Amino acid sequence: MSRETRGPGAADGGQGAHGRRGAREAQAEHGGEPRGHLSHRVPDLGALELLLAVARHGSLGAAAREVGITQPAASSRIRSMERQLGVALVDRSPRGSRLTDAGALVTDWARRIVEAAEAFDVGAQALRGRRDSRLRVAASMTIAEYLLPGWLIALRTQRPDTAVSLQAGNSAAVAERLFAGDADVGFVEGLAVPDGLDGVVVAHDRLVLVVAPSHPWARRRGPLDPAELAATPLVLRERGSGTRQVLDAALSGHGGLAQPLLELASTTAVKAAAVSAAGPAVLSELAITEELASRRLVAIPVEGVLLRRDLRAVWPAGHRPTGPARDLLSLTRG
C-alpha cells in the first residue's frame, strides 16, 4: 500500500518526520487539511452571525440591519460563504430568504460556534477585569517617596476602582520582584536597565553632596575634589541601591569609595543622619529640597565628576505593561 493511501497513523509508523511529512502531503493532495489547523473552508464569526440572523428573520435585509451592514454587503457575504463551503445555504425569492437543508445544518453548527465564542469573550473580559482591578508597583526608595505619590494620585482619577499596592526597596529588590511575578511594573534609579528587563526613562535626577551646617565643609569656598570625596567616609545607602551604584561608578576612577561611615537602607534614614551631623551624605536632589531651603543641610559642589542619573520604569523583557500599569507609565512620561 502506498503512503498516500494510508491513514495518518499508519503513515507515521516507523517513518519519523519523513512519514509525517508524507501524510501532510497526502492530505493536501486530496483537499484535506493537516491536523491541528482549521480548514480554510471554515467561515469567520461575522459570516456565521449573519447566517444566524437570516435564520431568525427569514429576510436578508432584516439580517443585514441587525448586524449593521447594507443588504448588498450581506448578500455578498452569504455568497462568499457558500463558495467557501461549496454548498448553497440560502434560497432567495421575492417573498424572503429561506435556508436550504444544508443551510439549516450549517446554521445549527454555527449557533454552537457563536455561543462558544460568546463564552470565550465573556471569560476574556473577566480576565481583563481581574487584571485591571489591581496594580502592583515596585519602586526604589527615592522614586517611591518623592515621585510615585503624585503619579498614583493622578492614576486614581483615571481608575478609581483599581487597588494599588506599592512595595519600596532598592533597585536590585525591584528587579527581583519583577522576575518573581510579584509586581506589574517597577521603577529604578541605577545606571542602566537591569539584565532581563526592558525599560524607559521617565525622569532625571541629580545627586548632591550635603553636610550639616556645623560641618567644616559647609564653610569652604571652593568645590570639593573627587579624590577627596572618594577618600572621605560617608553616610551611604546600602549596596544594590541606585544611589550607591551611581556614586560607585562616578568615583571608581578616583580611588573608589572609602569604607562607609554608616550604611543605611532608606533615603529618609540617610537624610536624617546627615541633618544630625553624623557625616557627609550623597542624596537625590528630589529628597532634600526642604532641607536645603531651611539650611538644615548645605550642598557642597563637587568638581570633575558627574553625579546625574536617569530614573526608569522597568518590566520583564518582552512583556510591555498593559491595563493600569500602562496607564501609570503614560502618566509618568507626561
UniProtKB/TrEMBL annotation:
PANTHER family registered for this protein in UniProt: HTH-TYPE TRANSCRIPTIONAL REGULATOR, HTH-TYPE TRANSCRIPTIONAL REGULATOR CYSL
Family: Belongs to the LysR transcriptional regulatory family.
Record-given protein name: LysR family transcriptional regulator
Organism: Streptomyces wedmorensis
Residue span, HTH lysR-type domain: 43-100
Entries under PROSITE patterns matching the protein: HTH_LYSR
Pfam family membership, one: LysR_substrate
Composition bias type Basic and acidic residues, residue spans: 22-36
Signal peptide: none
Region feature (Disordered): 1-40
Record keywords: DNA-binding, Transcription, Transcription regulation
Domain of life according to the entry: Bacteria
